[in-house]
Every structure is written in structure tokens, then in C-alpha cells.
Design goal:
With 215 residues, the protein is an alpha+beta fold. It has 3 helices and 12 strands. The chain has helices spanning 4-25, 39-64, 71-89; strands at residues 94-99, 103-105, 115-120, 124-125, 130-132, 137-146, 152-159, 162-170, 173-182, 187-192, 198-200, 205-214. The strands form 3 sheets. A 5-stranded antiparallel sheet has the order 3-1-12-6-9, with helices on one face. Strands 4-5-10-7-8 form a 5-stranded antiparallel sheet, with no helix packed on it. Strands 2-11 form a two-stranded antiparallel ribbon. A hairpin with a 4-residue loop joins strand 4 (124-125) and strand 5. Helix 1 runs antiparallel to helix 2 and helix 2 runs antiparallel to helix 3. The longest helix has 26 residues, at 39-64. It is elongated, with a radius of gyration of 21 Å. 29% of the residues are buried.
């Protein structure tokens, strides 16, 4: 028979593995995605997950994992755990910016997306083209940089000066979509990743992201 202390430990270890592990699976992509990214839908899906799945997992773990003699102690703090999860879900960070004018890019030129469609949390800077994380957490970041027929496009997603992902395209859009862990104050931006100049087609070139969960 496990001690009460050991039961509580395994209960929370199980909760972390099941709840957080499933949450990490949301948006775990590092491949081309559809041209249109619906950040509102992503945010809504995350909220639905919190509301409908996480609480059920916590309750089930209390009932099935914890030693019966310890259930009272664990249930007494389960409401606090749920309140923390719900508090995290209420923190909303989301941005969506578009490049509205054509530009020729040199190597490592930062692409500034000059029209802000959405900037909840104020993380995106329209002057610099960079997003600054207001919270430590797991973020979903995507960019699509479009060129014209007969041209190539090479782009990179950059965090604090280091490349995290690369993309290129011919006669089309270079697309990056990935989940990335950011600390408070970390900066993310998109730059051109080729020595020769390349042409950016306006209005079909975007930079967007959303906070998936706090860490």
C-alpha cells in the first residue's frame, strides 16, 4: 500500500503527464500549413480543451489514482489546481500582422508587417516587426511570405537572433508554423535568409501567433 505522501506525488505526476502532455500536443507542427491561419479558432479550441477535458482528467485521477485514505487531502486542493488552470486559460495573447506594401529584401533583412489586424496583449511592435513575449509559455507562431511567379523566397523564423525554422518557395509562399517556448522578453521575428535580393508580394504576407499555455 502506498503511503499518503507517495500517493499524492503519483497523483500530481500523473496529472502533469496527462493534462500538460495533452496540452503540449496542441499545434505541435513544424510543416507547411494552409494559407489561412484562424487564430480565433485555435484560441477557442484551447479554451474548449481547458473547459471540457482538463477538469475531467483531474477528477478521474483523484478517483482512480490516489489511495482511498488520501483522497480527502487531494480533493481539498484539487479546486485550487483547477482555479490555477482556469486562470491561465484567461490570459490571452494573440497577434496577426500583414505586409501591405511590396519590398525587395536583402540578406537578414527583418520583414516588418506594417498593418496590425490583431494585437491582444500588445506583444507585436509594428515599427520593428518583432513580437516580444509578455509571458513565459508555449506559443504557436506562423508566417507566410509570398513572392511572385519567376521568383524565389527564403525566410527564417528567428528567436533572439537565432534561427528556429527555415522555409523557401518558388513562385509561391514560404510558410513556417511551429510551437516554440518563449521566456518573458524573448523576441521573435521573420527575416530574409538569402544573400541576393528577393521580392515580397504585399497583402498575402503575414506574421501571426498566439499563446497556447503558460509555463
Amino acid at each position: 500500500m502506498l503511503s499518503c505522501k507517495a500517493s499524492v506525488f503519483f497523483f500530481y505526476f500523473g496529472m502533469y503527464s496527462n493534462v500538460v502532455g495533452d496540452n503540449l500536443h496542441l499545434g505541435s507542427v513544424n510543416a507547411p500549413v494552409a494559407a489561412s491561419i484562424n487564430l480565433d479558432a485555435i484560441s477557442a479550441n484551447i479554451q474548449t480543451y481547458i473547459d471540457n477535458v482538463v477538469e475531467t482528467k483531474v477528477r478521474d485521477l483523484v478517483a482512480n489514482t490516489v489511495n482511498a485514505s488520501c483522497q480527502g487531502a487531494v480533493q481539498a486542493i484539487t479546486s485550487d489546481v483547477m482555479q490555477n488552470i482556469q486562470a491561465n486559460s484567461q490570459i490571452n495573447v494573440m497577434f496577426h500582422a500583414v505586409r501591405t506594401s511590396a519590398i525587395h529584401l536583402g540578406n537578414k533583412a527583418v520583414i516588418v508587417f506594417d498593418s496590425v489586424e490583431k494585437n491582444i496583449g500588445g506583444g507585436y511592435n509594428v515599427q520593428t516587426g518583432k513580437f516580444t513575449a509578455p509571458y513565459k509559455g508555449l506559443y504557436f507562431i506562423t508566417t507566410r511570405v509570398t513572392t511572385t511567379p519567376g521568383n524565389y523566397m527564403h525566410t527564417a523564423l528567428v528567436r533572439n537572433g537565432e534561427i528556429t525554422s527555415l522555409a523557401w518557395a518558388a513562385d509561391a509562399s514560404a510558410v513556417i508554423a511551429e510551437t516554440i517556448q518563449l521566456n518573458i522578453g524573448d523576441k521573435v521575428w521573420v527575416w530574409h535568409n538569402r544573400n541576393s535580393q528577393e521580392y515580397v508580394y504585399p497583402n498575402y504576407t503575414i506574421f501571426a501567433g498566439t499563446l497556447l499555455r503558460l509555463m
